[in-house]
Amino acid sequence: MAVNIEFYQSVSKELAENNVQLIAVSKTKPNEDLQALYDLGQRAFGENYVQELVDKEVSLPKDIQWHFIGHLQSNKVKYIAPFVYMIHGVDSEKLLQEINKQALKQNRIIDCLLQVHIASEETKFGFDGPALHEFFTSGRLGDYSNVRIRGLMGMASFSEDQALLTKEFSTLKTYFENASNAFTNGQFDTLSMGMSADYKLAISLGSNMVRIGSLLFGARNYAK
Ligand SMILES: *Cc1c(COP(=O)(O)O)cnc(C)c1O
Q1: For a pocket test of ligand 1, which of 11, 69, 152 has the largest count of ligand atoms closer than 8 A to its C-beta?
Q2: Do residues 97 and 135 touch, judged by C-beta distance below 8 A?
Q3: What is the pTM of this model?
């Protein structure tokens, strides 16, 4: 078993002191590894693939909070809508509409984060600054009665250039602050940014939710 228990304990303490929530990113990892962290008290797990998440949800304890952090296709929302705790990768209004529709069918309200494109790479999905502003000032938020938009999520460039990462995280933090003006009820409270390589920097720049995989579970092997 590859779970790094020592790291889990030290990072949990560090994050708790900073009021930052840890999402343990368990994609590709076997159920035993998730159960090992669960037994130490971890409840929030992040997954990227719908089928894998559905399989894990069936086998693992019912009080796990499942965070869907990958790219979600509209036609797959229905499979996770009955149980998902939070969807981080809401990268279009079309997807938000589908989540709202499936949540309504389940008689649930699903917590969502809008994904913002902050990285320099072309491949990362998400709203850009103007699209975000347009959406939050449009009045259309009220159309989505079965989703609760809790905040924003972003992924920085795959780079070790600290100045670049700082710029990207700071941009996201500014969008987060601006967008929170659209909410008067205090529900817009989550800024999900930071992964294994950059979580410390992300926290120093205002993150309050980090998504950590490889430092907890070891490197992922996609081949098998
Ligand atoms: C896989 C993944 C992570 C975790 O990455 P690590 O570098 O292993 O910590 C975090 N966020 C998203 C969106 C991911 O897809």
Answers
A1: 69
A2: no
A3: 0.96
